Amino acid sequence: MRPILHRYMKHLCSAVGLAFLSTSLGSCRPDLPPTATGTSLAASTPLKTGKNTDYRTPPVRGPVPRNPDFAFSSDFSRKGGISFSRVPVSGKYIAMTFDDGPNPQNTPRLLDILRVRNIKATFYVIGRNVDLYPQIVRRTVAEGHEIGNHSYTHRLFTKLSDSEVRSDLTRCRDAVGRAAGVQPRTLRPPYGGLLQRQREMVFAEFGYPTILWNVDPLDWKRPGPSVVCARILSHTTAGSIVLAHDLHGSTVDAMPATLDGLLQRGFQFITVSQLLAMQAEPATTAHAAPGTPPLMPVSMGGADGQPLSSAP
């Protein structure tokens, strides 16, 4: 009996030991549901999270810097020039511009961000979007922002005839008038592309100076809010015209830190027309030969958020 009992006890101890070891090792990791084959889900299916489609502007926590109240004139001289990428001014005044709206999700969020900081910006709107969301344009104007003409269809003007350019600008102008009872006073051509001859025609017939930019964060590439913020902060100087797009949610996400950073550095925000009206001395416009594309590098995304394949 003793040899049999000895062997029985030996096997029992071994089984208990293995069970204890298995329990000890298993306690070092979270419990995972077994699959049909006995392997864990972690080994076969990576954990995935969906997009956050319910993003809202975070509530302001504590005080934020505020732009001063200004009563500057927006009546700029027609002798000051017909094309600008920045404006020579004597103070640290800048114009923040947003293209390709209105957007039903992002533009209202951006207006909230601007309002709490008392910042007035310039919105270069696409006419067909104005017809879709006229109430957003009305709110934009009611809160003191400026509306600029960004065409009705967002086609590249250098590929259009003069009559097509004229028609596209007229349709956008009329859409803004129907929506908000105001008229655009400046033009930003789609993709920044406008021949010198076309700029002169638009200035003569519509009175629009062509407004480009000297700060471009390339936000249409969607590099992330922190990158957009860093690029704008590092390149903005007095008289800058800053390009951004309220078409993209990530650009709007970048604006609180961007605007606060600019305010903390002493910059003050005014509209494009106000910036043009206070230029220190008339800008010298370089006249290119007829048919020569603009010298400004074109890097702006289109209405669908995609860049032009090549500069016009």
Which key terms come to mind for this protein?
312 residues, TIM Barrel, alpha/beta, globular, 9% strand, five-stranded parallel sheet, disordered C terminus
Question: Strands, helices and their partners?
Answer:
Layout: H1 2-26, E1 83-84, E2 93-101, H2 106-116, E3 122-125, H3 127-132, H4 134-142, E4 146-149, H5 162-180, H6 196-206, E5 210-211, H7 225-235, E6 241-245, H8 249-264, E7 268-269, H9 272-277
Parallel strand pairs: 1-5, 2-3, 2-6, 2-7, 3-4
Helix pairs in contact: 2-8, 4-5, 7-8
Q: Give start-end ranges of low-pLDDT stretches.
A: 12-55, 282-312
Radius of gyration: 29 Å
Order of helices and strands: HEEHEHHEHHEHEHEH
**How far do the termini sit from each other?**
99 Å
- CATH H level of one domain: which superfamily? Glycoside hydrolase/deacetylase
Percent helix among the residues? Answer: 25-40%
Q: Which fold name fills CATH's third level, the topology of one domain?
A: TIM Barrel
Going by CATH, the architecture of one domain would be Alpha-Beta Barrel
Q: Give the total of beta strands.
A: 7
Continuous helix count: 9
Let me know the average pLDDT. Answer: 80
CATH first level of one domain: Alpha Beta
| Overall form | globular
Sheet with the most strands?
Answer: 5 strands, parallel
Structural class given helices, strands, pairing? alpha/beta
Q: Please indicate the percent range of residues in DSSP E strands (runs of 2 or more).
A: 5-15%
